[in-house]
Amino acid sequence: MGLDFYTGKLADAVNWARKFSLFSYPFVTACCGMEYMSVAAPKYDIARFGAEFPRFSPRQADLLIIVGTITERQGPALRRIYDQMCEPKWVIAFGVCASTGGFYQNYSTMPGADQVVPVDVYIPGCPPRPEQVLDALILLQERIQRGEGHSQVMLKAEQKNGGGYDVPTTAIRPRTSHLPGGDKGGGGNVGGGNVGNVGNVGKEG
Amino acid sequence: MDNTLAPPASRRVVVGIQEPQDFDAPELPTEPLPLNMGPSHPAMHGTVRMVLEVEGEKISSADVQIGYLHRCFEKESEFATWTQVFPYTDRLNYVSPMLNNVGYAMAVEKLMGITSLIPERAQYIRVIVGEISRITDHMTCLGASAMELGAFTPFLYMLKAREWLFELLEEVCGARLTVSYLRIGGCAWDLPVGFADKLRNILDRTKGVLDDVSKLLDRNRIFRDRLDGIGIITQADCLQYGITGPVGRSTGLAYDVRKDAPYLVYDRFDFDVPVGSVGDNFDRYAVRVEEIKQSMRILEQALEQLPAGEFMLNDPRIALPPKSETYNSIEAMIAHFKLIMDGIHVPAGEVYSYSEAGNGELGFYLVSDGTGRPWKCRVRPPCFAAVAILPELLKGIFLADIVPTFGLMNMIGGECDR
Amino acid sequence: MSQNVLDRVKAQFTAGELVETGAQHGDEWVRVRRDSWVAVATFLRDDPATKMEMFIDLTVVDRFSTEPRFDVVVHLYSVSLKQRVRLYGGVTEDDPTLETLVGVWAGANWFEREAYDLYGVRFKGHPDLRRILMYPEFVGHPLRKDYPKEKRQPLVRRQPNSVD
Whole-model pTM? Predict the structure, then answer.
């Protein structure tokens, strides 16, 4: 058994700890904020998943939850907040406005938060039901455990390449274990995960 | 209002720069410090940016910048049919979506001249769901404001009560928050079976929640100290700025659209309109608590008076035909097609219609050119006027006082920025 | 409903200052000539028979194919007398300016800023006329009928080394 076994087990343990103690930064803008409050409320209780604590400073958070519509005016603020977070960090786009712009197609709405920040999990819904949000959180936790969050992949690549951010997007495998064929290669996009423009994020600024 | 809630006059803090001798400490020289709050800030209810100039802890100037949630309601509604605007109206004041639907439906009906033809049951249903939304609005505002001051428990209690109401709304129309329940001419569907009993049950439990929250907050030394005497608005300010709703009534301005210009069936109910006296933050809190109780009173009377009947106007030019006919007869299918594709033909003209939303007078100014799409659909947002007074109001108060002052204005980004 | 408001205004001002009055769907309205905008507004606020103390709304309608192109629309309410009125101020496209109402009602400040931001109507004498809903770098006035709905002007560059 080589060193890989131990570092592999250590990575698993660290990821286990990370996924169950997510400190979220709820970037709340609009109506989805009400459903975010409901998810944090006693009935749907996000605390059971360990992600209860909203840290209202990006420097202390590792999960950026973009709740609600992002307008063009909000773009620089969102990007700056994403940049202030420490690695590894994950991003959830909560609601269809943050995912793709929703039914707003106009001069002020950004068609999705992934125009400016890379997103790990998209939650459709207008607003999404709290159960959807919890499902997305579980999906994210599984990705964290497998080390597939965009930030984790970049960190790993950085270590391997000695500093480069160039990560081919095929490095991120979509989840297929639940599909009827089982875990046979990366079949299509399923459920929650799609990472946008990983390469560009590295090249910015 | 119960006047044992008012603190003794000696404990009232006067807003403004305090004289140095009050504090028994020397006046230290300060330099103005520009400080930025927002646009993403935990204590900013919506998304708003305040560029403050602070001297020590006191604010010398505040530039409140809104527009971070400008989702182009007016522009989108110019490209949508009259009925397709309803989902956009849900997302205006998203904590009380039914009230926006009510306001918009009333405006289009006024423009068409069919206000008197709306069936009585539909009007009662509109009142009922509107008051439920008003309760959720005030509960969210009070809960969030309390949380920002550190009182986390009332926030969770209020959310618990709000969940019950959301679930009830979900039974009515399928959505907890963005309801789109009303249509021009009535409601989309009738109330479900057993609605009245469920609502009465929820109202009983909500009274219990309100009592709990009152016990925690009304005489709480910290809560009162942070709210009393801060952020005083006068009646004259309200008239100049057009501030209505709980904020306006907290100053003593007794203007409530439901009483002064009754619409739907509000003139058949016996309810009071709470009016404050000082116009500070605590009055805004107390007016909202009292309004929740009055809304519950209206709901009880409405449930008793709710008549049987149609929930939608029976006019093929306005209401969609029943699905069984749409699938089986050509006339109904054509009528359905025309209503969906072209929209309801609203005669050319202009109208301003107003109703009492959670934050005050919600006005819809509609301009129609005779087609099925609006030429202009303007929302007069009540909290826009309330936030407009903030740059003046924040001068001279402490930095920490921004939090309750802004919180209790209940600025909802969707409504303020549209 | 508020017919006496129209009567008072017509009695006080001549045809040189008012263009037209009328009522539709229960709303009374007055179309005012541009030069007497503030005079009519001040009269409506101060006259004991109209007493329009409360400023409700100010917006602009883009008529697009009729002259004058923009109509500045003001809604006023009298809390004491429970009556309402609507004022129209026609403004052309070549000279989209109008006097500010900030001196009459302080609340007109932000509403006029929004009218400037979204329609391009400038208000003479306004203390702080700048954009309120759109960001300062935005070019154009989006609610005008000739501004395309989906023309975005992104504030954050999507691609590095590009203007987009």
Answer: 0.88
